[in-house]
Amino acid sequence: MIRAGMKLIAKNGVAGTTLADVGIAAGYSRGLPVYAFGTKDHFLIALLRSMEVWFEKNLHKELSGKKGLEALRARIGMHFYSLRRDPIAIAALFSIFSESFYGNESLRVEVERFVGQWRRGFARHLEEAHSAGEIAKVDFEKTATVYLALVRGANLEYLMGNRKLDVDEFEEAVFSFIDHSLAVA
């Protein structure tokens, strides 16, 4: 049901997707998602958490033995890998992000927690890079926020019609910007 819901949300948005639609698309009854999740908000939170589990599992592998700038690059690379691997999941994720802006408190809190982990990871790697002498001191939180916005913006630009652009080129452009902004040789 999670995958079926993800596809529907990527295509129709959160508002355009009902739990009944999810049940039917998954090959079950219209009522099974209500039985399994209770509410649409609970379904959306379950969907976010399933994405988070996948991302964190794969990120853990990518970060193994890496610190500082190498870890920052690996973390950023995972965002682009996710886009390459499953643009439908990323489109659904952005739809959920957008829905969280409009007074849906439980969803907003979950999205903030979800995205906060990404931001804290970026900041942690920047701090490691500074401690290792790879970069000068920066405001780790603000810089992490800018870099995360850059990565999300590149993902969104790709999804919003520039799919003809190469994801590898987007990724290299982001790395180039970061290297320039940090004065990395």
Keywords:
single chain, mainly alpha, 77% helix, elongated, 185 residues, 9 helices, Tetracycline Repressor, domain 2
Structure summarized in a few sentences:
This protein has 185 residues and is an all-alpha fold.
Tell me the span between the first and last alpha carbons.
Answer: 48 Å
Residue share in helices? Answer: over 70%
Shape: elongated
In terms of quaternary structure, the protein is single chain
State the total count of DSSP E strands. Answer: 0
- CATH topology (fold) name: Tetracycline Repressor, domain 2
Instruction: Point out poorly predicted stretches.
Output: none
User: What is the helix/strand order?
Assistant: HHHHHHHHH
β-sheet strand percentage:
under 5%
- Name of the CATH homologous superfamily: Tetracycline Repressor, domain 2
Q: From the coordinates shown, what is the CATH architecture? A: Orthogonal Bundle
pLDDT average, as an integer?
93
Coarse structural class? mainly alpha
**Overall tally of structural domains:** 1
CATH class: Mainly Alpha
